[in-house]
Amino acid sequence: MKNRIHRRQFLLTSVCGGMIIRHAQSKEKNLIRSIQREIIWNGRKDGVTWFHPRACILPRDPNPLVLMTCQSITGSDVFGQVHVSFTSDLGRTWTPPRPIHAFARHPIDGGLEEGVCDVVPQYHEKTGVVLAIGHNVYYKDGKLTRPDKQRFPVYSIYDPRKQEWSHRKKIDWSDPRATAMYTCGCGQRLVLENGDLLIPFSFAPNDRTDRAVGAVLASFDGDVITIKQSSEEMRLPIKRGLLEPSVVHFQDRYFMTIRAEDDHGYVSVSDDGMHWQDPQPWSWDTGEPLSMSTTQQHWISHSHGLFLVYTRKDEQNINVFRWRSPLYIAQVNPQTLQLIRESEQIVLPLVGDGVNNAQHVARMGNFHTTNVTPYETWVTVGETLPEDEWKGDTLLARIIWDQANTIL
After folding, report:
1. Integer angstrom CA distances of residue 61 from 90, 122, 302, 371, 396
2. What is the per-residue pLDDT for 13?
3. How many structural domains does the chain have?
4. Is the Cβ–Cβ distance between 258 and 268 less than 8 Å?
5. Domain that holds residue 78
6. Strand blocks (E) in 50-126
7. Which of 11, 34, 117, 390 gets the most CB atoms within 10 Å of its CB?
8. Cis peptide leading into 279, omega within 30 of 0?
């Protein structure tokens, strides 16, 4: 049978779009037409390294308004106040980052400061607001500290009609498995068709050092997040356990990718978001496992395929800290939960010598993915160069999807 060429609008499940799209299976290949790379802010020269850049889409004609949160970094997990920037021309120009007062540091007892980091904004279609969720973090004398205090998710709500942010709120979860900490920082979550939230958590009780992962189902009325149901936990009791899970919906199932501490990343699948299969390490479709050193991975869901963006060990980055450069993308086989080896491409390349001069290679392990238009997905990341005063650029990679597909 001859190949048929179709021009059609792709349907994308956006991290910030608020809708779950049901996808049809396809055997199409070569969906990525090109990857374009640019600098949003030049922190290597301008002095401010804008880190944790995470964008979401606010629907608007003819172009969407894009909101992006970010914060400065000056040391290992030492973050400044969370800021926000906007673009109305698909990322060609950005407003100067301005502080979100709800996420400011403030002093607490014992000479500590409580701050906020790892914020992920997401548009909530039913209420028309942006829900930005991060988690609290503690500092003393300008350095990260871990006192005997619970860590938990905090959030603020942006109302685009008033152009105002709410005060800081806490997601309350009284689960005994989470007495020491629970967080969804850096993770992709889902807005379901009825407006409920499916949020992946990493959590731990007071008597354990390793964390588990799971998911919670929560309602959101435009003001308050209320947890209604929680899943069973998944565990890997090695070092800190399982961290920074992200979820996506594809072909009527839920997929979770998980950071771990055993030189692997893990993937699990669920039919309902509450009952998850045992996690399996990411591997190629040849069966060969990938080496991933305690770094997050994130999803891109496209109408014709499911993709993963990740870092891994390779000959060119053998001495780069946790192999956090370059950033790769590969298509996922949703039946076997493996990456299709021949589909791998580099999203953002390693700059420098990752073998002989790796200390001066920018790390890109904290990144985000956003479906911006039916034909364009962004990967945003802030570089860090600890040996060069933590200076780094804020980068944008535009993944341009092929608009004319061959249906096999």
Report:
1. 12, 19, 22, 16, 23
2. 35
3. 1
4. yes
5. 4-407
6. 50-58, 65-75, 78-87, 98-99, 106-108, 112-124
7. 117
8. no
- The partner residues of 372 in beta bridges, in order of sequence, read none
| Amino acid letter for position 179 | T
Confidence of residue 62 (pLDDT cuts 50, 70, 90): confident
Written as six digits, the tokens of 234 are 């998944």
pLDDT band at 280 (very low <50, low <70, confident <90, very high): very high
* Alpha carbon 47 to its chain's center: 25
Q: What distance, in Å, lies between the first and last C-alpha atoms of the chain?
A: 9
Q: Does pLDDT of 123 surpass 60? A: yes
> Is a pLDDT exceeding 70 seen at residue 341?
yes
Domain of residue 207, CATH code: 2.120.10.10
Helices (H), 1-80: 43-46
What are the tokens at 272? 């309902």
Residue type, 155: Y
The candidate with the shortest Cα–Cα distance to 259, out of 214, 233, 292, is: 292
* Half-sphere exposure at residue 329, Cβ-oriented, CA atoms within 13 angstroms: 27
Q: Please report which confidence band the pLDDT of residue 161 belongs to, taking 50, 70 and 90 as the band edges.
A: very high
